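Dear Dr. H.,

I hope your travels went smoothly. While you were away I took the liberty of generating a structure for the chain from your last submission, since the lab meeting agenda had it listed for discussion. I wanted you to have the full record in hand beforehand rather than looking at slides cold. The sequence, exactly as received, is reproduced here:
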Amino acid sequence: MILLLLVLVAVATAAVLRRGAGAYPRVRTASAVVPAPRKPGAPFRVVAGVAGWAAALLYLWGLLGVGLAALEAEDGGAGSSPLRPCRAGVSPELSGQVIDYSVSYLPLRFSCETVDGETYDTADVPGYVNPGVAVLALTAVASAVAAGYATELRARAAARRDGGR
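The corresponding predicted structure, in token form, is as follows:
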């Protein structure tokens, strides 16, 4: 699943960089056939924005899983022992030893604590959420840095060109 996500991010990045995002829509009038100038680093800014939004949405998806598991764990009544989120995917012997749970928000995790002090993570947060958020966030940061670098290179080239006259 992570490999598929990485391939999708790479394809989207290549498509954005190839198409020259930031230069569209181009306004063409009868008197001007010169395309609109593109700001330096525009494709990188688009990639940074899209990756940042995708990371935020993926984090919210994982946060929803953690929140629902915590709500279900706090729900009392018949059938609430052992904790419902701690029952799924483990043996009844292990889930019968659960005494408490803990929630982590970075990385997103819902952990069940047993009598002997051991912990195990539940499947309430899908396995692709934390690595996906990390990859998308790093992509956003790297693209933002690349956009700043491209802008700086263009500014330095313009200063050299204007200073040489």
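Two observations you may find useful: The chain has a mean pLDDT of 81. Strands lie at 98-105, 108-114, 119-121.

With kind regards,
E. W.
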